[in-house]
Amino acid sequence: EAQVTQNPRYLITVTGKKLTVTCSQNMNHEYMSWYRQDPGLGLRQIYYSMNVEVTDKGDVPEGYKVSRKEKRNFPLILESPSPNQTSLYFCASSSHTDRNEQFFGPGTRLTVL
Amino acid sequence: EDQVTQSPEALRLQEGESSSLNCSYTVSGLRGLFWYRQDPGKGPEFLFTLYSAGEEKEKERLKATLTKKESFLHITAPKPEDSATYLCAVQAISRDDKIIFGKGTRLHILP
Q1: Above 80 in pLDDT, residue A42?
Q2: Which helix (H) or strand (E) holds B32?
Q3: B7 vs A: CB within 8 A
């Protein structure tokens, strides 16, 4: 089954404790992206990647890092999480030929205390 | 500044009562406009892509249209299972491959 998976689905952590949210897709997609979704603000793009070893900032990259060492994986790293990073996070992927049809993962709900 | 605005924020309809959702955008050169559906607790699900003014796409009870300033998502004779949040997003030529989402319209269809 074609899908985007994220882990963990739920995470409660404390300020300053480094964490990684994993994202994996099994569709051989080149384009992958991370979004955060907050009430009243909608979905905002954090980082995106056009292909392996190619990453670019979205609209809200501060406080986040990403890497794209393999085509299928695109982890989101929070080196020193802060309470304002409490949010619902989505990973998405799409192919180069149909870049606009993004497939989204199920989401990761992160709470930073 | 590139912007995407959706209206109304929320809409309640009776089953069978047709209506339209609006997505207005301000970008310097549109590469594409997208509609997604999002159910509570789930990731968005792709519906349509529109590329140029005058283009229309249909899927079951949904039809999306595009002008130079806005897009409409028309819902004909909706059913309760059409209840969801509908998101509009744009990709602007000036923004490389970044995508801007609107805040969405929460649609509730009453049986």
Answers
A1: yes
A2: strand B30-38
A3: no
